[in-house]
């Protein structure tokens, strides 16, 4: 298995008919006037691809958020299945996670790290949390 896409955005949804992932407001930085700060809403969108043998079997996804010092902010785990696909199309599934009121204690680099089946596959995406300089937008 692999995670070919992992991205942070303001909002994400999956069209129930086409299976298309709609992502709005992709970002890699959060700006704050003071710390600690709180980000009201964030979505993490992942596409997970597998092989035919991975279809309709239970798999485990773990997502952690760590700061630049390696301190874990939180970790979540959940089970998922990859549905069978049409011949010639690799089986895949879309995973959308929403985080509300996420708190950042200090500016710096934060990393979302995802693992499947205890490190069978993994992916990362980085978010910079930046102190806004007065006079800049």
Can you walk through the features of this model?
- The protein is mainly β and 137 residues long.
- The chain has a single domain, classed as Immunoglobulin-like, CATH 2.60.40.
- It has no helices and nine strands.
- The chain has strands at 2-14, 21-26, 29-32, 37-49, 58-67, 72-81, 92-104, 108-116, 121-131.
- It is elongated, with a radius of gyration of 17 Å.
- It starts with a strand and ends in a 6-residue tail after the last strand.
The CATH architecture assignment turns out to be Sandwich
- What would the CATH topology be? Immunoglobulin-like
How many distinct beta strands?
A: 9
Shape assignment: elongated
Characteristics:
137 residues; mainly beta; Immunoglobulin-like; five-stranded mixed beta sheet; four-stranded antiparallel beta sheet
Q: What's this, in brief?
A:
The protein has 137 residues and is mainly beta. It has strands at 2-14, 21-26, 29-32, 37-49, 58-67, 72-81, 92-104, 108-116, 121-131. A five-stranded mixed sheet has the order 3-9-8-5-6, with no helix packed on it. A four-stranded antiparallel sheet has the order 2-1-4-7, with no helix packed on it.
Q: How would the blueprint of this fold be written?
A:
Elements: E1 2-14, E2 21-26, E3 29-32, E4 37-49, E5 58-67, E6 72-81, E7 92-104, E8 108-116, E9 121-131
Parallel strand pairs: 3-9
Antiparallel strand pairs: 1-2, 1-4, 4-7, 5-6, 5-8, 8-9
